[in-house]
Design brief:
- The complex is a heterodimer.
- By secondary structure, chain A is of the alpha/beta class.
- Helices cover 42% and strands 12% of the residues of chain A.
- In chain A, strand 8, helix 11 and strand 9 form a beta-alpha-beta unit.
- The radius of gyration of chain A is 25 Å and the shape is globular.
- Chain B folds into three domains: 159 residues, 3-Layer(aba) Sandwich (Rossmann fold), CATH 3.40.50; 134 residues, Nitrogenase molybdenum iron protein domain (Rossmann fold); 106 residues, 3-Layer(aba) Sandwich (Rossmann fold).
- In chain B, strands 1-12-11-10-13-14 form a six-stranded mixed sheet, with helices on both faces. Chain B has a four-stranded parallel sheet with strand order 3-2-4-5, sandwiched between helices. In chain B, strands 7-6-8-9 form a four-stranded parallel sheet, with helices on both faces.
- The chains are: A alpha/beta, B alpha/beta.
- At the A-B interface, strand 1, helix 2, helix 3, strand 3 and helix 4 of A face helix 1, helix 2, helix 3, strand 3 and helix 4 of B.
- Strand 1 of chain A pairs antiparallel with strand 3 of chain B, so a sheet runs across the interface.
- The structure holds iron/sulfur cluster (2 copies).
């Protein structure tokens, strides 16, 4: 056996079994780059002004990505389309991309993930894929009878400059029978990350359908709020619906893959799993009482689903951070609470009777930093109270701990916000995304961040690892892709977001709302306690 | 079993000739053609094939030239292990951006290679072309030649543009690339009793298991291609006296070239299952024409089988008569699985592959029991339909097939490159049997709706 290149694992827990079979966890070797370190120290010394759009040349080796901290655009689009009832995602390009994406999504969600493709051959790559697209659509319609086809391009069809709208018109004109609507989103991977694909697909759905409802509705019932949750877990989606119901405001989530990607075992095969937001619900979004779009990074984007609703249909838009942690959840619920009060005032006006006075089931919560009060249904207020109580119980275990956070930009902003509010120091926040707004947004949103926090956008795991080694973090917060680094550093990884493919239950991880904050907090504290326990020579069973 | 869904799933007319039944007259299974547009094929692309084959070469740099996805989806997901360098487990990509696509990616490729070679000091570098690169027409070979000269290591282009075909075409491209190393190393200390293992990727340490058997028989294993592979071993593998080729699809072309250029004969083998593993060992013993070696081999085989049998027998009693569906990449694996399943008392009711050819399907038809469904390049809907119709108890496939099985309350065994369980060799047979047993016999199926329904409607045994 050769051990020439073998490195010892810097683990605090040597002699773990299987050490022989598992190679040292070093994903990337450290070749200290003097210049880079010097730059890094400089950067540490001088805190960037709050809210500045400080762009940091992150990549150590700028021409190659080593272990990307991002995925490609069509993956995000496919995921978004999975949240529409009866929809099947369809990739216009080679089958390989679809197969990889399917397998990647399955490893996280552990659910069927049928994604069709036009299966380009060499000929279609040279002469165009129009014929493939049309046959492909016909076949997929025949086999799946979908209510919607979510069509995303790949790098290949984008590069050869396919006229997809033309092909689609031709397809609709020549189709033998009725065909479902086809929503097209352009997703060239060399133009963004999976997050862009996701957001663009959501926007394409709204552009295609909102306001196209032909049925006149006479019911007076409260129109739902349009909620664009972003790329969150099925559990998160369910939590959002619960919060909406508790606040008395029905939500139309787009997308909603809470059932399609986290459903029960079947009694018979379901070609397309049940669940998802229906096309007619999307059509009716034009009359939503308001729109809420999560993601502080997304809030800086020019055209989004929310913006389309606002501009075209005058739906009031609230662009908020992902409701991760106490403060961001408070902000979200404040919007809902105000909306409810509006409704309540209208009540007072028309009936002369205030329902507010008859709301014994609400509690006024005092918000931090003099931000006023937040009226919540008592059960939610209790939940919030218990969260804070647990933070008090566990504060010493987390205070001053150093964390490295990585993942999609918006998720990273949310997670960092939670860490900061419980007293953890985010020493590095990194993302493979490159909105150009990452550092500015983080610093603007999270007052606790100071010179100790390095922020990297457009980062890969080689950069993250390189910096993390010098920062001596106590924990990593992010997806499974950080495991190698966690193992190398001998510190816990708090698995969040996507992908989680080295644990079961990625689809059930909860990040949002007070409940999500509670789960994250408990997991963080317990991971730190376990780490301490494992490393203790005494082995206390009472901490 | 009546399943409305099974009845409602229609087979696309253009796919009907890719499905046949053993024991029934009919045309050959149509195969070896591009996947039908719009079908959710379980196949991957040429790039995937190349990546699978070359990936385990542990001390080489593997750079994926293209946009990020192709590299990101293949980062450290395979179970191939190395006893030394871990360089191969990284995912390197040129991460092409829009400007590169417009103006060409050659410069970026050159820079990326330079940075990475300096940083990692690999023994060789492989540069994989993805779809885009084929399209924008980068002269990857020229860049590789330049870098090769600059660093004095082989920098080898892999023509693996995804759209050029299926995994099979990617295997070919990988063999072409690997073959550029062959014949450049020193072969002096190679013994007369020496072999190469081709087409074994050391998933979960399988190459080590197989190597162990041969070493016990006094046979030198010069190189494994590519499990726990090293550039220097591959360079001198032409010094071996015999090649064993596993996984027929992936490395046969390399074996043929070694035969043509270096006069090394090859034997097709499989290391899965008792029968095939033993046949492989005996084949080598026969080749070296040494009665003593033959005796030693029988001894090894006997010893190993004796060690397994008590537990295997128990498992067999429990599994007797249960039915399995097999859907894997290559046909050779399918043959082995049909036999291995028989060893544990199970019948193969459905067998299919992504890349089998005509001969493969003919052989499957001949070896399977009458009524067995045989299918080429299937898709989730078809597989679900067949599973319902044949009412199987187990599915053997890859991650993409797993949810189909689980949703229907069917056990599952992963037999793909991603698995972390060694299934080759005698010990692998035991692992396989245990895994199948663990999945088929789990009590959880009783709670899944489809099974619960079946339990309710089925006449209860012991009831008189
Ligand atoms: S070609 Fe583009 S779409 Fe396909 S896997 Fe690669 S990056 Fe993703
Ligand atoms: S089909 Fe092409 S673009 Fe897609 S994964 Fe394969 S090589 Fe990459």
């Amino acid at each position: 056996m050769k051990n020439d290149d073998c490195r010892t694992v810097r683990s605090r827990n040597p002699g773990t079994k299987g050490a022989h079979w598992h190679a040292p966890a070093t994903e990337v070797r450290l070749f200290p780059d003097i210049l880079h370190s010097a730059f890094f120290i400089l950067h540490q010394a001088a805190a960037p002004p709050e809210g500045s759009l400080l762009m940091i040349p992150a990549a150590e080796f700028p021409s190659a990505a080593t272990n990307a901290c991002k995925l490609c655009t069509p993956l995000g689009a496919c995921l978004a389309f999975k949240g529409v009832e009866g929809a099947i995602p369809f990739l216009h390009g080679s089958q390989g991309c679809a197969t990889y994406i399917r397998r990647y999504l399955i490893s996280h969600f552990r659910e069927p993930m049928d994604i069709a493709a036009s299966n380009f051959s060499e000929q279609s790559a040279v002469f165009g894929g129009g014929a493939n697209l049309k046959t492909g659509l016909a076949n997929v319609v025949r086999q799946y009878q979908p209510r919607l086809v979510g069509l995303a391009t790949t790098c290949l069809s984008e590069t050869i400059g396919e006229d997809v709208p033309l092909h689609l018109r031709e397809f609709a004109e020549t189709a033998a029978g009725p065909v479902p609507p086809v929503v097209h989103v352009s997703t060239a991977s060399y133009r963004g990350t999976h997050m862009d694909g996701f957001n663009d697909a959501v926007r394409a759905l709204v552009e295609a359908f909102a306001g196209t409802d032909t049925i006149v509705r006479s019911d007076e019932s409260l129109s739902p709020a349009a909620v664009f949750p972003g790329m969150v877990s099925p559990s998160d989606l369910r939590e959002l619906k619960r919060l909406g119901a508790s606040m008395g405001i029905p939500f139309t989530l787009l997308p909603d893959y809470s059932e399609t990607l986290d459903g029960p075992t079947w009694s018979d095969y379901e070609k397309l799993p049940a669940g998802g937001t229906s096309v007619s619900e999307i059509r009716r979004l034009s009359s939503a009482q308001m729109a809420i779009e999560f993601g502080r990074i997304l809030a800086g984007a020019e055209t989004t689903a929310g913006v389309v609703l606002e501009r075209r249909h005058q739906v009031p838009l609230h662009r908020l951070g992902l409701p991760i942690g106490l403060r961001e959840t408070d902000r979200f619920l404040q919007i809902l609470s105000r909306a409810r009060k509006d409704e309540c005032r209208a009540d007072v006006h028309s009936s002369g009777r205030s329902r507010c006075a008859e709301r014994p089931n609400t509690t006024l919560c005092i918000l931090p930093s003099g931000a006023g009060g937040l009226e919540l249904p008592s059960d939610l207020a209790l939940e919030r109270g218990r969260l804070i109580d647990s933070w008090v119980d566990g504060h010493k275990y987390v205070f001053g701990k150093r964390a490295v956070v990585f993942g999609e930009e918006d998720l990273a902003v949310g997670l960092t916000s939670l860490l900061a509010e419980i007293g953890i120091v985010p020493v590095l926040v990194a993302s493979g995304g490159k909105s150009g707004r990452f550092a500015g947004t983080l610093r603007a949103a999270i007052p606790e961040l100071d010179a100790r926090t390095a922020i990297r956008e457009s980062a890969d795991f080689s950069t993250i690892a390189h910096e993390a080694r010098q920062l001596r973090p106590d924990l990593l917060v992010g997806n499974s892709k950080g495991y190698g680094l966690a193992r190398e550093l001998g510190i816990p990884l708090i698995r969040c977001g996507f992908p989680v493919h080295d644990r079961i239950g990625g689809q059930r991880l909860l990040h949002l709302g007070y409940a999500g904050a509670q789960q994250l907090f408990d997991r963080i504290v317990n991971a730190l306690l376990e780490d301490k326990q494992t490393r203790s020579p005494v082995g206390y069973s009472y901490l | 079993m009546n399943s409305p869904a099974a009845a409602s799933i229609s087979i696309l007319p253009d796919r009907r000739d890719s499905i046949a039944r053993a024991g029934e007259a009919g045309n050959a299974v149509a195969c070896d053609r591009g996947s039908l547009a719009g079908s959710v094929t379980q196949r991957a692309c040429a790039f995937c094939g190349s990546r699978v084959v070359l990936y385990p070469i542990a001390d080489a740099l593997h750079l994926v030239h293209g946009p990020i996805g192709c590299a990101a989806y293949t980062w450290d997901i395979r179970g191939a292990q190395s006893s030394g360098p871990q360089l191969f487990r990284n995912s390197f990509s040129t991460d092409l951006q829009e400007m590169d696509v417009i103006y060409g990616g050659e410069k970026k490729l050159g820079r990326a290679l330079r940075e990475l070679i300096r940083r990692h000091q690999p023994k060789a570098a492989f540069v994989y072309s993805t779809c885009i690169v084929g399209l924008i027409g980068d002269d990857v070979s020229a860049v590789c030649r330049e870098l090769s000269a600059e660093f004095s290591i082989p920098v080898i282009p892999v023509a693996s543009e995804g759209f050029k075909g299926t995994k099979k075409d990617g295997y070919q491209a990988a063999c072409d690339a690997a073959y550029r190393l062959v014949g450049t190393g020193d072969t002096r200390d190679i013994s007369d009793r020496s072999i190469n293992l081709l087409g074994d990727f050391n998933i979960a340490g399988e190459s080590w298991i197989i190597r162990g058997y041969f070493e016990r028989l006094g046979i030198q294993v010069v190189a494994t291609l590519t499990g726990d592979g090293r550039v220097d071993d591959i360079r001198r593998c032409h010094g071996a006296k015999l090649n064993l080729v596993q996984c027929s699809g992936s490395m046969t072309s390399l074996a043929k070239r070694l035969e043509r250029d270096h006069g090394i004969p090859f034997q097709r083998v499989s290391f899965f299952g008792i029968e095939d593993m033993s046949a492989a060992l005996y084949g080598v013993a026969t080749f070296f024409e040494d009665p003593l070696l033959r005796e030693k081999t029988s001894e090894l085989v006997r010893e190993e089988i004796e060690r397994l049998m008590p537990e295997l027998r128990e498992i067999r009693t429990a599994l007797e008569g249960k039915k399995a569906a097999v859907y894997v990449g290559g046909a050779f694996k399918a043959f082995s699985l049909v036999r291995a399943l028989r060893t544990i008392g199970m019948r193969t009711a459905i067998v299919g592959t992504q890349t089998g050819d005509r001969d493969d399907y003919d052989q499957l038809r001949a070896m399977c029991e009458p009524g067995t469904l045989i299918v080429d390049d299937s898709n989730p809907l078809e597989l679900a339909k067949f599973c319902l119709e044949q009412d199987v108890d187990l599915f053997i496939g890859g991650v993409k097939e797993r949810p189909i099985a689980y949703k229907l309350g069917i056990g599952f065994c992963d037999h793909n490159h991603e698995r972390k369980e060694a299934l080759a060799g005698y010990v692998g047979m035991l692992n396989f049997a245990r895994e199948v047993y663990a999945s088929v016999m789990s009590p959880v199926w009783n709670y899944t709706p489809r099974r619960a329904l079946r339990l309710r409607t089925a006449p209860r045994e012991n009831e008189e």
